[in-house]
Amino acid sequence: MTYMQAHRYLMQYSIRPSVQRTAVMEYLMNHKTHPTVDEIYLALSPGIPTLSKTTVYNTLNLFIEKGAVQMLTIDEKNARYDADTSKHAHFYCGTCGKVHDIMNVNPEVFEIPSNSQFTIHSMQLSYYGTCTSCNS
Q1: Considering just the CA atoms, what is the radius of gyration of the chain in Å?
Q2: Which DSSP state fits 114?
Q3: CATH code, residues 85-135
Q4: How far apart are alpha carbons 50 and 14 in whole angstroms?
Q5: Distance from C-alpha of 62 to C-alpha of 60, rounded to nearest angstrom
Q6: pLDDT 10s digits, 61-90
Q7: Domain 3-81 of CATH type 3.30.540.10
Q8: Which residue has the higher pLDDT, 87 or 40?
Q9: Which whole number is the average pLDDT over 21-32?
């Protein structure tokens, strides 16, 4: 994804696209590794000297609030972020610590009974184990 694509994506979610916000979104769209705040900050700060870790954190919170990004709590040490807000699951490798997307999960897993009295705003489906690379 390009900077302009990230800019347009933010506009779709009614987020004013500042230089910092657009850079954070572009990074998330181009790095499917489910990065942490620290990883995003370390990657972007050399090119944006005015960027602070607090700015990255606040930007991600805004993205979550507007529904443009999801925060993953799959890693007990760090919150991770995913620009793909479609229904999908995640796999956490306990050996290498990488988080992988699992697409095409049975959509029935994401539904609760219609007679439920709950209003669901979000949900996460996470799997834990060892990835193929670590199993070798």
Answers
A1: 16
A2: T
A3: 3.30.1490.190
A4: 24
A5: 5
A6: 999 999 999 999 998 889 999 999 988 899
A7: no
A8: 40
A9: 96
